[in-house]
Structure formats: C-alpha cells, structure tokens
Amino acid sequence: MDDNSIIESRKLSQQYAYASLQMHEAIARKAGFSGTDHKYLGFLLQKGKLTAGDLAELSGLTTGAVTGLINRFEKKGLVKREYDESDRRKVLIVADYEKIVKILEPFYRQFREESEKLLATFSAGEIATIQSFLLKGISLMKATHNKFKE
Amino acid sequence: MDDNSIIESRKLSQQYAYASLQMHEAIARKAGFSGTDHKYLGFLLQKGKLTAGDLAELSGLTTGAVTGLINRFEKKGLVKREYDESDRRKVLIVADYEKIVKILEPFYRQFREESEKLLATFSAGEIATIQSFLLKGISLMKATHNKFKE
DNA sequence: TGGATATATCTTAGTTACTAAGATATCTTC
DNA sequence: GAAGATATCTTAGTAACTAAGATATATCCA
C-alpha cells in the first residue's frame, strides 16, 4: 500500500483517540464527575484494588492530590479505604464496583451495544486484523508513555 | 466470529483510547504544558483559526475559562488575538502553527515514525479494514458525544 | 433612526483541586 | 532499639475553574 494511506491511517487513529477523549469527558460531566475524577475511577475499576501510592504513580499526581481524590470518592461512597495487614502504612483503595458501574452503566450501555454491532459487521479475519492493530498500537503508546513519564 | 472476540475487541479499543490518553498526557507534561492546555492546543492546531466562543463550545469550558486559556497561550507566544472585521465583538484565536509544532514535534517524531512502520506491516486490504473500523468508531463516538454534551 | 434586546468576550469573586514541603506513622536494617 | 526509609496525610500557597454580572458591539423592529 502507498504512503498516503499509511499517513492517513495514522491521522485517523489520532482522531479516534481524540473522539474517545471527548466522548468520555462528556459522559463524565453528565454522570456528575467534575474534572478528571472519572479518568481515575477508570484505573480503580480496572485494577479493583490499588494502594494510594500506586494510584499516584499511575496517575502522575502527587500523593497529596491522591489523598484528596480518595477523599472525594470515599465521600460519594464509591471506594473504601482499607489498611494493608502486612504493612499498615499502606492504604488500599477498594472500589465499590457495583456502585460505580451502576452510575456509569446507563451512559455507556447504548454506546457499548452499538460498538459491538459495529464490530459484528466485520468478518472473523477482519476482526483479527483490527485486534492486531489495536494491540500493537497499545504497546507502542505504552512504550512512548514510559519513555516520557518522569 | 463469536461473541467473545467481539467483546474482547471492544475492550481492546477501550484500552487503545486509554493508552493514547496517558501517552499524550505524559508528553504534554514533558513539553511544559500544565494541566489540560495541551488538549486545547490540539483543537487550535486542527482548526487553525477559531473564535473564543467556538473554543468554549468545543472544549466544554465556560467563556471565562477560555479567556484565561487564551491569555496563557498568548503569554507563551503560541497564539494571537485578532478581532473579526465583520463582527468586532468576536475574538479570533490564531495559532502560531510553526511555533507550536516546533515545541511538540521532538516528542512526537519517533512515535509517528513507529506508528507508520507499524501500519506498513499490514497489507493494503488490511489497512482498508483498519481505516473502516476507525472511521466508523469515530462517527459512533462523535454521535455519543453529541448525545450527552449539554 | 434609535431603543430594546441579543450576542461575544472579559472581569470579578469564590471554589476546587493541584503542588511542594514537611508531619506522622509504620517498617526495615544493622 | 536507634537510624533511616517508606507510605500517606496535612498544610500553605497557587492555578484554573465556574457563575454571575459588566462591557462592547450587533441586530431587530416600531
């Protein structure tokens, strides 16, 4: 294939990431999450359990900011603080999965359904291609992220 | 193809968007942009010229916040304010494309090159599939965004 | 025309969430 | 068990946001 279609694809993937960002932000606002909280709630859902320090590391926030973040989530009843048995300095942030999903689910349901409908229009082979593209892209972006963080 | 691979693909596309977000944030920090400015600089680069009101609309910020945003960019010499001839209430934000690219380019160069290398490993047909997937995804996310904004 | 209303941006006051630095509590090491 | 390391929290100060109102310009219509 020619260079143009490659460059165009790269730009498309940029637009894809961008559209996703915008959509998630709009949903966050609608769901009543101010600022960036929605983003970090994603970490918590993904990981389930996480120490405050890990969240600071993952998010790039200072530990002080993370304390505030946890306080806000705790006040809303979305997470609980638990203290690590084997190292009582550590604070485990435990996400209330059910509760968080219950809040976000209504906003994402239709999107998720239509995403799956969209994917179902592709053949098995095409799906494999798409998955391969996504996987390789993810690993490239993670590598770039690691290169620049800190 | 089976349902599982569809669901897995949807999750992958979620991770893809997420990895992109994280990478861009790390680069923004590295390039000296605090907070969310980098994100809005993207709008400006994409559009070239934009009124303050349009930027408020696009970003979801209040007009007051946009005034502050423009002031910060202007202070760094990244944009200029121009007043619309035909409607002198309007403030056109004109991006200094060269200057902005000069700041961001070094951070994105390698990523861009490797993205293109990655894409070049796919056949023309596969690229077409990927493009189709990205395009349809973008339009679905935009539709979802429009549904929820405001 | 000109007065009323609408629109685009800016300003002000108050709030929220951030950072940096230091305090506190706990763990590890020697 | 004292010294230092580590994990989180607290405090003080700052940056960037919102909401509401001010200002300047445009539009509409009697």
What are the segments of chain A in which pLDDT stays under 50 over at least 5 consecutive residues? Answer: none
Estimate the strand proportion of chain A: 5-15%
The interface involving the most residues is between: A-B, 58 and 58 residues
Chain-averaged pLDDT of chain A: 91
| The number of domains of chain A | 3
Q: What radius of gyration of chain A results from the CA coordinates?
A: 19 Å
Number of helices of chain A: 6
User: What gap, in angstroms, lies between the N and C termini of chain A?
Assistant: 38 Å
Helix content of chain A: over 70%
| Helix-and-strand structural type of chain A | mainly alpha
User: How are the strands of the biggest sheet of chain A laid out side by side?
Assistant: 1-3-2
The total beta strand count of chain A reads 3
What order do the helices and strands of chain A follow?
HHEHHEEHH
CATH superfamily of the largest domain in chain A: Winged helix-like DNA-binding domain superfamily/Winged helix DNA-binding domain
CATH class of the largest domain in chain A: Mainly Alpha
Apparent shape of chain A? globular
User: Can you tell me the CATH topology of the largest domain in chain A?
Assistant: Arc Repressor Mutant, subunit A
Oligomeric organization of the protein chains:
homodimer
- The CATH architecture category of the largest domain in chain A equals Orthogonal Bundle
